[in-house]
Specification:
The protein is of the alpha+beta class and about 100 residues long. It folds into 2 domains: about 1-35, no CATH class; about 35-104, no CATH class. Helices cover about 15% and strands about 25% of the residues. The chain has 2 helices and 4 strands. It has helices at about 60-65, 80-90; strands at about 35-50, 50-55, 65, 95-104. It has a 4-stranded antiparallel beta sheet with strand order 3-2-1-4. The two termini are about 25 Å apart. The mean pLDDT is about 90. The chain binds zinc ion. Zinc ion (ZN) binds near residues 5, 7 and 8.
Amino acid sequence: MDAKCELCGEPMPEGEQMFKYHGLSGPCPKPPLPKSVEEVGWCIVRYFGSDLTYWNGRFLDSSRGFETDNLKAIRFARQEDASIVLSWLLGNEGAAQEHMWVCP
Ligand SMILES: [Zn+2]
């Protein structure tokens, strides 16, 4: 069994594999792992052919302003805000979509 400390990610020592964290025989040998962060937001999306692309907020034109990499997408906190920019940017094209990102 490969038990790892949930705080620092290092293997648990012999005889302590039943525990979730270091502590019995000493503190964590390494600094804590960064916690992953879930971000929820609304993006402006449109299809180019069969590719779903996301507005990056940096350009208004469709060739540079839309990319397939959703990590580069501008994320709006509210659907309302995404919809306002969508109508200004694309009129009746495209859509506002809600996504969740898990960031390291
Ligand atoms: Zn630890």
